[in-house]
Amino acid sequence: MAGRGVVSFQLTILKVLAGQRHGRASHLDVAKCVAIPMSSGRDWSDRMKRLAARAPGLSIFSSDYVLRDASGWQITDAGRAFLTSIEVPASGPAPVEIETPHPVAAAAPDFPANVIKISDLAERRRRLAAA
Question: Is residue 96 part of a domain?
């Protein structure tokens, strides 16, 4: 059985190939493209670990999700279907939205168009972190 790190790496390969034109890339291009998200930080790593938990023992080559030949690697239709299936959120109760009270704020002063308010940046960061 493959460890989570190996499965996360294989899922990254599937994601990279799925994003390539015709689902195909040379070995060198796969290596370059995989290195980017794998070194991008905790968000990608955590996401792949969550997906890996849904695919224990994954082997993209023996499952025929990826084909290799002399000119490169290609994701198969089965590989695309598998990737789609594990990315679908698990069924369960829908998350409950909890309405949080918003503090009453004074009217915002008029800022020139080229000024970014710090509060806007904080809100953007919260939305990105939640995505």
Answer: no
Check if the beta carbon of residue 14 is closer than 8 Å to that of residue 51. Answer: no
Amino acid code (one letter) for 99: E
In this prediction the pTM is 0.62
Least confident of 33-37, 52-56, 62-66, 88-92: 88-92
Residue 22 domain-assigned? yes
> CATH no. for residue 76?
1.10.10
What number is the average pLDDT over the span 89-109? 56
Residue 33 vs residues 8, 17, 39, 75, 125: alpha-carbon distances, Å? 15, 9, 11, 14, 26
Which tokens belong to 92? 């369960």
Report the alpha-carbon distance of residue 20 to residue 61 in Å, rounded.
18
Domain assignment present for 95: no
